[in-house]
Amino acid sequence: MDSVWTYFTDHRRQLLFDSYQHVSAVVQSVILATLIALIISIASYRSATASALANSLSSVILTIPSFALLGLLIPIFHLGVTPSVIALVLYSLLPIIRNTIVALSSIDPALIDAARGTGMSRVQTLYRIELRLAWPAVLSGMRVSSQLAMGILAIAAYAKGPGLGNLIFSALARIGSPTAIPMALTGTILIVVLALILDAIYILIGRLTTSKGLRD
To answer: Which residues cross the membrane (predicted)?
Structure first.
């Protein structure tokens, strides 16, 4: 572990920059995935067939190996950030879509009828009642997607993506050299630490944005 600490202190500026890029790419990708997932979920949750189709398609995407998906995206978008972010967005869809559809579908219809009875429009009911009740489930899906994306982004270094994956790939290319293991361990440890910090932030956001009645 001494060699890992030595490598960390000697390269802390670059490691901090790579860590920032890693978290930034994951957060931006999950936010984009959440917007897409909400649109798909809202459009499909009232139809059993459409809901099943949305869940199935997002499940199929998740079964595609990361290297294979990046290999399909690189000829279209070339190397760099774009194919990495697209892959993260696609992989992040399933947990959010599934949680949102289940949450919206489980809301008591009598509650919706009562809201409509007070004069709320469809959009008002959706925004003020349904999405607020579904928010804890949506946030839970975002947490799962973020943890998933943290690991997948390390593989996206194959497509010259941003983040700590480049450190791990460089270490694999130097197997046998004295710096290979410290580089790989440093990159792996930082990804785990960042994932735990991001998860704690999601818990805090949940506490701040979910009403006490829904938390209990």
So the answer is: 20-45, 57-79, 85-112, 179-205
> Dihedral of the CA atoms 102, 106, 112, 113 (nearest 10)?
130
| Residue 77, C-beta contacts closer than 8 angstroms, at least 6 positions apart | 83, 86
* Neighbour tally for 142: CB within 10 Å: 23
Maximum CA extent, the chain: 72
Amino acid identity for residue 113 in this structure:
D
Mean pLDDT over 25-52 rounds to: 96
Please check the confidence at residue 189 and state whether its pLDDT lies above 90. yes
CA distances from 95 to 54, 58, 184, 206 (A): 11, 9, 29, 17
Start-to-end CA span in the chain (Å): 43
- The pTM of the full predicted model, rounded to 2 decimals, is 0.90
Q: How far apart are CA 24 and CA 32, in angstroms?
A: 12
Backbone angles phi, psi at 175, to 5 degrees: -50, 130
> Residue 161's closest CA among 58, 89, 60?
89
3-state secondary structure 28-91: HHHHHHHHHHHHHHHHHCCCHHHHHHHHHHHHHHHHCCHHHHHHHHHHHHCCCHHHHHHHHHHH
Proportion of the chain above pLDDT 70, given as a percent: 97
